[in-house]
Amino acid sequence: MSIKLHRDYGQECTRLDETVSYLEYVLHESMHNEQAFRENIKEAYSRINSLDGSEGYIALLTNVKFFEMTQGNIRQLQQVRSRPYFCRIDIQPDDTERVQPLYIGKASLFRPDTQEPVIVDWRSPVANVYYEGRIGKVSYETTTGTENANLHLKRQYTIEGGELLDFRDIDITTRDELLQESLGGSADSRLKDIVSTIQEEQNRVIRAEMYRPMIVQGAAGSGKTTIALHRIAYLIYTYGDRFNPEQFMILAPHQLFLKYIADVLPELGVEAVRQTTYLDFVQENIGKKLKLVDPNQRLFRFLQRDEEVRLLKFVSRYKGSQSYKEQIDRYLDEVTVRMLPQTDCKLGKRLLCTADEVRKFFCEDYLRLPIYKRVEKVGKILRERLKVKKKQLLKDIADHYDERLEQALFLQDPVKRKAKVIKLMDDREALLKSVEARSKTLVKEYMAQFPKLDLIGHYKELLADDALFDSLMSEEERRFFQAHSLQLLGKKRMELEDTAALLYLQHKLFGLLTEVKVRNLVIDEAQDYSIFQLLALKEVLGSEMFTILGDLSQGIHSYRGVESWEAVLEAVFPNGNCQFLLLEQSYRTTVEIMNLANRVIVHSQTPGLVLAKPVVRHGEEPKRELFGEQRALLAQVLADTEALKGQGMHSVAVIGKTMDECEQIQMWMEQLGTKLSVKLLDEKEDYSAADLVIVPSYVVKGLEFDAVFIVSLEEEYTADELDVKLLYVAMTRPLHRLFVYSMEGKTELLDLLEA
Ligand SMILES: Nc1ncnc2c1ncn2[C@@H]1O[C@H](COP(=O)(O)OP(=O)(O)OP(=O)(O)O)[C@@H](O)[C@H]1O
């Protein structure tokens, strides 16, 4: 039935028209106000210049604040003007007869005259009913308690360019057409928001209580990244009176990924939230003293099975462990003890501070400060005390000599008297001078007994301390661990595995280099984090407000990352208040592609593996083909890509196992010639500008494309654990089409699927 025949069509069109024109009116007014605030700022600025001091300054600040707020409102209204809302709920609170239709969108809009909501923000408490409520009795939480109501209608709209194209009523039995429509669309080079189709299990993650930490194990394509961003938007909206956006941070694996997600938060009306990588966060806070060993090169070294690889893997795992943190704590205790002086600090015979008092400063009063900040504190206290003591001492000396001079004046013999007076005056002068001179060096000399090393010096000292590690590993392992780590430091290099220790040491010894305001942390792709990385973050942020999202099946760095979520719960959140949620439903890809990917991942050793369940969306079977010549394989990829582009597939990727393989693919494409723009991606790139991207398997996690070619020229995916995971990650990237093109003889893992 055409929607135009629906009995509510006319009414819905009128409501939309009214909303759009009211929105345009508010937008127009806001622009007018923006201009007025701009003028006021200019005016206030000139008043500051004309020396009308504080009044002008206050006016300037107030106007800047209003100007920024208005700009924010304008941006939000502009974003929603073509699609002001996406659904409606008709709700009747238990204590009234009135059924109120509420239109839910990505911004909120009120009529101040009638106090009627024109658009209700998707993050507001009542909007929860849209995501979770069934027609009939519902309840939702507000700041004042639980509200009970009757839900009469849930209606979804398709609106484009301010025009109503379609609407449908939904309840539990209706298939969610809007979701199907949204999933059937094409992948952009940027992640998008999903406010209109957030699913119930996802909504629970987004709206989970802020103060409790949360771990989410989510299958590939279950929406973890998307949810992470929506959760931040929700928290900022809900707790905006207590927290500002600078107190939120999202950690993602690399720059390419950050560019991929960059637009979502602004689209959701959220700005100023820090989006960074763990490495950048660490380097910003310890300085860029050391160069990073490329973790991806290491990854492929680990495919070999020699004794060195066993030891390297051991080192990686150990450096991410809680045990390593505990040994560092022991080392820090030793450093503290070494700092404690054995002698008192005295100016002459006068005591400035006893050794015991310094011990108390160190081990009690200023215990919460980093060790070197405690040293600074002691220095400051001594300097302050010295000032007072010196003044007193100088006065006592002066008084003492004045008295003796007075007595000398009574001597009968003028010659003796003169000699005595001169001697006393000289003595006084000399003593005063020596007190002055001693005061200049006293604190400096006393403080010199505190050992001083820089961060790297301490790290080297720690690593060289056999006694710390003796009982925890075999002698062979300890020797390798120490030699390997110290050798790297000697070349001014570190591994990613060292960053937790360095961040932690910096925090405990010196304090971080920047003031970290972040209290609320969202970590995406968290399966690649070690326990120690998480513990270090918890320590430096001084907060447990963590949302940790990851998928163990995609743990390609499992030699250094999370082994099991239970281990994280136990080590990082031992007080048992951390929530654990599972997202099994996968939204990205078709049933056919997901089924094939699931047949791959069952060959992994992932603990407690939970297979992804695809939403019911069918597509073509993944295409497998073997080739005798590399040239023919890539000619086929190019021909298929052109055909796919013709079918409206915007983003197409060729995934090679390693960077070498990708470079070879690129070389062949250049030789073959194509009118498509082709781009080879590494972790720092941005892929928005190319028709076809070539990307290594270990970089591709988190991203998605309309169609994906998994190509094996020289590098095959074997049945090894790492390869299983790399292939699984690659296979779960496409939305619609998957092609697996291999050279003959390069199909070990895929052959297993046939068996
Ligand atoms: N509720 C939803 N409505 C519409 N689209 C959704 C929904 N949930 C997820 N998606 C889509 O599914 C795709 C996968 O989402 P996302 O990348 O956030 O998943 P992920 O769990 O982080 O995946 P992976 O671990 O495989 O990288 C995206 O295109 C996202 O827009």
Automatic annotation (TrEMBL):
PANTHER family: DNA HELICASE IV (PTHR11070:SF17), UVRD / RECB / PCRA DNA HELICASE FAMILY MEMBER (PTHR11070). This is RNA polymerase recycling motor HelD. InterPro entries: DExx_box_DNA_helicase_dom_sf (IPR013986), DNA_helicase_UvrD/REP (IPR000212), HelD_bacillota (IPR048228), P-loop_NTPase (IPR027417), UvrD-like_ATP-bd (IPR014016), UvrD-like_helicase_C (IPR027785). ATP binds at residues 218-225. Signal peptide: none annotated. Keywords: ATP-binding, Helicase, Hydrolase, Nucleotide-binding. The lineage of its organism: Bacteria, Bacillati, Bacillota, Bacilli, Bacillales. Residues 197-590 form the UvrD-like helicase ATP-binding domain.
